[in-house]
């Protein structure tokens, strides 16, 4: 059980190194410093877009918006649009591309260069080495974010790989498997990671999960956590938050490694929870790797990613 996703999670250190190596050949295909950029995706790809957009803007590379592909705000003008889709057949991404004003430069980031989205965009970046057999996305999403962070000058690949190896081999406490609620928190670019961690546990193990910016957690959400909860923060937490959480009886989790590497531990937890509940994390219920929408076939909009 879980052969595909387990192998894919374990391969991330190598995939991240390959993503770093890929940058030299695709750097010019990604938005230049100073450009006003939109980044879109669906599900997991949207959360990657959130993290990249926040990090790009905070590092001074230019105004950057992230949105689900179906919610792209066409009332704004952009110098470049990045579309992220593992399958390259995502209905919403294809539709967003078609709706863009003529002449808007576009880059598709996919796992397969021979797909409708990759062919339709002006530029294509393919992370074929990070493609996956599991419905659940893990290594494609994280490898994409490694590539994008490296493009921003925000990734030391050797250090990232070392942190990823730690996250793969650090034992997960058995007590985490006994909890009933899992809350993931972040700040800035790690809010996208928190959203993704919550999605991974929902997909793989049908767990009750939620995610918030760390400072927002005190404004209502903290009321539902207790001794049956895990509260997990990606990156350095706001002052006093750990103390507030511990007073609730919930377990506080915050690693000192790179937050993207810490996401690997959340991926592993989702798989372990799934197996403990006799589920198949490779094939979550109601999901498939690509969902065909028959009503849109006539217009060439073929599929929607499930994660």
Terminal CA distance reads: 20 Å
SSE succession: HHEHEEHEHEHHEHEEHEHEE
CATH architecture of the largest domain: 3-Layer(aba) Sandwich
What is the total tally of β strands?
11
Task: Please give a structural write-up.
This protein is of the alpha/beta class and 307 residues long. It has 2 domains: 3-155 and 299-305, 3-Layer(aba) Sandwich (Rossmann fold); 160-276, Glucose-6-phosphate isomerase like protein, domain 1 (Rossmann fold, 3-Layer(aba) Sandwich), CATH 3.40.50.10490. It is built from 10 helices and 11 strands. It has a 5-stranded parallel beta sheet with strand order 2-1-3-4-5, with helices on both faces. Helix 3 (44-58) runs parallel beside helix 6 (139-151). It is globular. It starts with a helix and ends with a strand.
Features:
5-stranded parallel sheet, globular, 2 domains, alpha/beta, 307 residues, Rossmann fold, 39% helix, 16% strand, disordered C terminus, 4-stranded parallel sheet
How would you sum up this structure in a few lines?
This protein has helices at 3-10, 12-26, 44-58, 91-99, 116-120, 139-151, 157-169, 190-205, 241-247, 259-276; strands at residues 37-41, 64-68, 80-84, 106-110, 123-126, 181-186, 208-213, 229-233, 251-253, 290-292, 303-305.
Draw up the topology in text:
Blueprint: H1 3-10, H2 12-26, E1 37-41, H3 44-58, E2 64-68, E3 80-84, H4 91-99, E4 106-110, H5 116-120, E5 123-126, H6 139-151, H7 157-169, E6 181-186, H8 190-205, E7 208-213, E8 229-233, H9 241-247, E9 251-253, H10 259-276, E10 290-292, E11 303-305
Parallel strand pairs: 1-2, 1-3, 3-4, 4-5, 6-7, 6-8, 8-9
Antiparallel strand pairs: 10-11
Helix pairs in contact: 2-6, 2-7, 3-6, 3-8, 7-10, 8-10
């Amino acid at each position: 059980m879980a052969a595909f996703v387990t192998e894919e999670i374990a391969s991330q250190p190598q995939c991240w190194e390959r993503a770093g190596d890929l940058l030299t050949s695709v750097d010019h295909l990604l938005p230049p410093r100073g450009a006003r950029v939109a980044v879109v995706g669906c599900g997991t790809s949207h959360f990657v877009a959130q993290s990249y957009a926040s990090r790009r803007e905070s590092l001074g590379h230019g105004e950057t918006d992230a949105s689900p592909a179906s919610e792209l705000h066409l009332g704004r003008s952009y110098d470049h649009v990045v579309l992220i889709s593992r399958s390259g057949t995502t209905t919403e991404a294809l539709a967003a591309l078609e709706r863009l004003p003529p002449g808007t430069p576009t880059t598709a980031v996919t796992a397969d260069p021979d797909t409708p989205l990759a062919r339709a965009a002006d530029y294509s970046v393919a992370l074929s080495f990070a493609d996956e057999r599991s419905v659940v996305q893990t290594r494609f999403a994280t490898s994409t974010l490694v590539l994008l962070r490296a493009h921003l000058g925000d990734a030391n690949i050797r250090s990232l790989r070392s942190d990823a190896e730690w996250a793969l081999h650090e034992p997960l406490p058995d007590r985490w498997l006994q909890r009933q609620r899992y809350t993931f928190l972040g700040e800035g670019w790690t809010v996208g990671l928190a959203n993704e961690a919550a999605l991974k546990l929902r997909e793989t193990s049908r767990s009750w999960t939620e995610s918030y910016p760390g400072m927002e957690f005190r404004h209502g959400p903290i009321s539902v956590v207790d001794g049956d909860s895990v509260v997990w923060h990606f990156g350095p937490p706001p002052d006093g938050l750990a103390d507030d959480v511990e007073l609730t009886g919930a377990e506080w989790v915050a690693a000192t490694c790179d937050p993207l590497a810490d996401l690997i531990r959340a991926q592993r937890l989702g798989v372990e929870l799934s197996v403990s509940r006799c589920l198949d994390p490779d094939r979550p219920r109601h999901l498939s790797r690509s969902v065909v929408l028959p009503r849109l076939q006539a217009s060439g909009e073929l599929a929607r990613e499930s994660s």
